[in-house]
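EI: anyone free to look at a 369-residue chain?
SC: sure, send it
EI:
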Amino acid sequence: MLTTKPLSISMPTVPKPVHDDLYEKNVTAWMMTTQDKILSETERLCEMVLNSTQTALDWVSQYVDLDYMMWIKWLMSPIIITFVILPCIILLLIYVSSLILYIYKAHRKRLIRRLATYVEQGDFWLGGREIVATLWDAHAWLWHGYELWGLENLPTEGGFMLLYYHGAIPVDYYYMVARVLLLKETMIHSVVDKFLFKVPGMKIILEAFCCTPGTVDTCAEQLAEGKILGLAPGGVYEAQFGDNQYKILWRERLGFARAALKANVPILPVFTENVREAFRVFPFGNRFFYWLFEKTRLPLRPVFGGFPVKLRTHIGEPIYPEPGMTPEEMRDLCKESLDKIIAQHQRIPGSIFRGIVDRLFKKPRSHSD
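SC: here you go
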C-alpha cells in the first residue's frame, strides 16, 4: 500500500523591514537629543537667573548695606508690631462693626423675621447693637480677660452719669458699654468729641450706639429723661497726655458737673485697671504734641500697643447732688472718688509685663455684682 506524504508548503519568510531599525534608532536619538536640549536650556535659564540675581545684589550692595538692613528689620520688628499691627486690630474691629451695621441696615427686612422682638420695641438699631456688642464682648474676653465689677452700684431707677478715666484708646469703655447692654439690656448714651463724626465709616456706629457731641443742656435733658450718660471729662487731652502714673487730667472741665446738678442725678466714677498698658502714646516730644494739640484739638500723637493685658473695670458708688452744691464741689468730689479707686486697684507706675501676668492670677472681689 502506498503512503503519501503530506504536502508541506513552505512560505517564504517576510524579511524585517529595514525602516524599523532605522525608526527605532531615530526615535532613540531624537529622545536623547530632546532631553539633552531641555536639560541644557534649563541649566542656561537657571544660570541666567543666578547671574541676574547676583548682579542685582552686587548693584544693591554698592548703595545699601544688606547686613545692616537685616539688623534694622530685626530691630524694628517690635516697633512695627506695637505701632502698626496691634493698633490696626482695634481699627479693624471698629470697621467690622461698621460693616455689620451697614449689613443690618441693608438687609433689615430679611432680619426682621429673626429680630421681631427688637422691632416690636420700636428701636431700629437694637438688633444691630446686639450683634456688635456680642462681637466686642467676645474680643474683650479673649484678648484682655475683661471683667466688669460694681454693677450693683448702678441705680435701678432714673438717669445717672458714668464718669470714666480716658485711656490712650478707650477700649475699656467700649467693652463696658457692650457688657452692660448684654447683661442689663440697657444702652449707655455716650458723649464723644466732634472730630469722630468726620472720620469715614464712624458715623453709623456713633448713631447706632447713641453717641453725641453733647452740651450741658442736651446732657441734662437726656439725664432728666432717665437715660444713662457716659463721658470722660479729660477727653482727648487726657488720652494724649496721660501716662502710666494715672494722673487725672481734667483741667478746668465743669460741664459734666453742671449737667448732673441741673438734672439732679448721681455720678458714678469708673476706672479700668491697666488701661494705660493696653495702649500707650508715643513717650517723646511732649511739648511738640502739646503745641500741635492746642493748634488742632485733634489726637495726632501716635498711639501704639494692643497688648493683651488684664482689663478690669470698676464702677464706684454713686455721688448724689446735695442742695446748694456748686459745680466745682461736685467736680472735686468726683475727682476724689476716682483717685481713690485708682489708688485702690491700680499698680503705679503701670507695667505692661505685670499687666499681662495679671491674667494668670484671679483677684478677689472687693464688691459683688
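EI: The radius of gyration is 36 Å.
SC: 👍
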